[in-house]
Predict the 3D structure of the following.
Amino acid sequence: MSGRIPREFIDDLLVRVDIVDLIDSHVPLKKTGNNFVARCPFHAEKTPSFSVNRKKQFFHCFGCGASGNAISFLMDFSHLDFVEAVEDLAGFVGIDVPRESIEYQAAGSKKEDLNSLYRLMEQVAAFYVEQLRTSDEGKIAVEYLKNRGVSGDCAGDFMLGYAPDEWKALASRFNPKLLLEAGLLVEKEGGQPYDRFRGRLMFPIRDKRARIIGFGGRVLDDSLPKYLNSPETPLFHKGKEVYGLYELLEKNSKPQRILIVEGYMDVIALAQFGIHYAVAALGTAASQAHLDLLFRFSSELVFCFDGDKAGREAAWRAMEAAFSSLKDGRQIRIMLLPQHHDPDSLVREEGVDGFIGRVQAAETLSEYFFGHISSELSLSEMEGRAQLVNKAKPYLEKLPDSVFKEMMYARLKELSGWGGLDVLENATTLDSRQAYRHNPRQDSKIGRKQFQGNKSARTAIALLIQNPRLAELVEQRDIDWSGLEFPGVDLLKNILQMIADKNPANQAVLLECYRDASDEKTIKALALWDLLIPDDGVDAEFCGALDTLLTQARNTIWERLLDKSKIKELDAQEKELFRKMQAAK
């Protein structure tokens, strides 16, 4: 869907959502006093340090430091980008996401609405399906599918179709400009555009929201290329999408594991045998974006590669993306098929139970990694063990700080016998370990450096962030801010202006206004600060802190003017200010 999400909708959404209900649907919470607690979903821990506050609509882990509002939780927990998190949050409360009407700028200065492209893709897919079922050419594709054991129901589940072997089958039926934007036409210099897909079995590629974003096409003879994918378009980015994910989630929204295979037909053949948890990368090596996408839905991924040289090389290339994605709680396995087999042929030969048995027995990433990297080294020799360390270190350094990372270093130390790895291990995991320790005095140190020890400034700003309605008390005072200086004054004025402009209903909405801003870290820290003030005492505490700040600032100005007047004459503006302040004393 095109267009920006209106800010007003996001603010309203955060008001509608109860963060306790949202997080409890993902991580069971237990009420403790005014908060709800659980073991943190973002790092491994034995005792709960993850806290959710219903009044503040905010979560925070005192172990790893993760914190934020409902949108932040979905982004971190489900590895979503901002827009996806807003869409999922809207789905949680059962409302649609509106969009502002804007145009995007595409290559070649052609502007079209994304909604039009999505509609076009649906129409083209339906046209291809019709051609498969009714045209004489389509009968050849149907025969191919029958020979591969693909039933009509399975072909329907994946919306398989056929692209006629014509140069302008689409151009004569649909808007050529939209076809070019969607990558369905090829623009030839000095000539007329022509259909990209001709005489091919067609595989619509759907995103997890069921929208068709691209196509893959397979020839039915020996011509090349055997497979052809849609190019990069405003809808389709092959480095971020996988084939078969929508179909997988339709069968099981929370699969125990996801099998990553190499081709479209592998996914379809396995589905034909009731194995509905396979997906395929789209003509490219699996990237970290692919893995992070799949880890949203399952904690275990199994790479399935052919057992030939090319398959083994592809398995090793997958290591870099795999290592960068392996946070605690995630697991990757490597499954190399027997020589001269692909998933389709193997499941037919060994049966479903035999194939599933191979999946379940696939090597863990750690087993595969150390087995592969040491296979040609002589670990009985010092030189071989040194090579092992040098080869393994670059991969282990990509691992996020975690228990798994520590264990991988421990395994490398065991294989190499090099005590120097203790230093490396400690250096790479010390920050993580320290982050997991909760310092009970941390709250009292929040902002101490920025506010230069001025507790009144910290208190006033923290209370304002946690209770945006307090800005009304500031307005009632009609404060003249000119010349007032104290630590944090710019931040205080910025927050007051933000509240005046955005009128946030609560702290969660105010925090969203500072997402990715330079002050976000400070704002979050002060939002977390528990001042232990009862609800009926918040107004008085805020006014007291504000009065103290203003008095300190005015006294500073008075003393500065008084000192200056003893040395030289004040200018006209300073004299007027001095007179007003003297009258007020």
The domain at 443-584 is CATH 1.10.860.10 (DNAb Helicase; Chain A). Residues 231 and 237 are 8 Å apart (CA to CA).
